[in-house]
Amino acid sequence: VDYFATPEPLGMKMVEWAGVRHGEDVLEPSAGHGAISRWISERANRTVVEPSRVLRSRLAMVMNPARDRIVDSKFEDLGVNNKYDVVVMNPPFGRGGSDAISHLAKAAQHLRDGGRIVALIPVGPTADKRFDAWLNETDEKGRPVRADLHLHREILLPGVTFNRAGAGVMTRVVVIDRHADLARALPQKQSIDLTDARDMADLFERIEGLEIDPRRMTKAQEAVQAGDASAKASKPAASAAPKGPKEVNPEALGTIDRGDAKVIEHTTQKGKVIRGIVRSDLSRAEAEKIDPYTF
């Protein structure tokens, strides 16, 4: 089976480099047991695709099946009408990177304008040739087929990256943005070479503070953001609520069994009042059996 689980610290950094914004649609194809998707914020709309029943059961443990979309199928079968703002992926590699590049090509078909792909792919003469041929393909008139896809950054990883999986394959992380407006595309920057990392501890230490430029918004996204900001600014002053929780009358929660826990009240930015209690003696699963909106 061509399955090399992503080391979780690397998965966490890949999600960080993706720059997921609140409310965006995010996809991880061939998600395995969730070493990447577990780091995607719950404030995003998360979709994960995994055909293996065994891996999917482990994946469900780090996702929220009540809110997240967990797809039981191969990524190849996911309809291209499903569009996403971000795709974070560690695809199956295949011989000479054949599967990795075909999965990457399909991921690009699902990506919206202004979106970003962060992908972990194999390195080697054949794999590199396949990647370059795909990204830089031209038509019969010499025009770029994928002029709206822009390789912004690549991080070259050491052979020890998949030591736990018993593989010494060389890999890299590529960061690709989609912008139809070329003026909004980030320029390609010099590769970051981490191939000399001595071991995993050394690699994790070196990527811990490594930052990638945030992706730029499209004009449409900027207009939406400006509209949201304008709507917030036009709200009456009375709707502004004090920040942070405050204690309230316990009777406000009716017959809830609160024990010795203090009842708190929090007002969201939209003016909605949420009342509840803080409990540290329950697991998240236990708390969600009481209330699925527990956080």
Report what the structure shows:
There is one protein chain. It contains 7 helices and 11 strands. With about 300 residues, it is of the alpha/beta class. Helix 3 runs parallel beside helix 4. The two termini are about 35 Å apart.
Considering the chains and any ligands shown, give keywords for the structure.
single chain; 295 residues; alpha/beta; three-stranded antiparallel β-sheet; 25% helix; 21% strand
Indicate the mean pLDDT: 85
Low-confidence stretches: 250-258
- Termini Cα gap: 37 Å
What's the Cα radius of gyration?
A: 22 Å
**Order of H and E elements:** HEEHEEHEHEEEHHEEEH
Reported for the largest beta sheet, the result is: 8 strands, mixed
Strand content: 15-25%
Which SSEs are present, and which pair or pack?
Elements: H1 8-18, E1 25-28, E2 45-49, H2 53-62, E3 69-71, E4 84-89, H3 98-109, E5 111-122, H4 125-135, E6 149-157, E7 171-178, E8 192-193, H5 200-207, H6 219-233, E9 246-247, E10 263-267, E11 273-277, H7 284-290
Parallel strand pairs: 1-2, 1-4, 2-3, 4-5, 6-8
Antiparallel strand pairs: 5-7, 6-7, 9-10, 10-11
Can you give me a brief rundown of this structure?
With 295 residues, the protein is an alpha/beta fold.
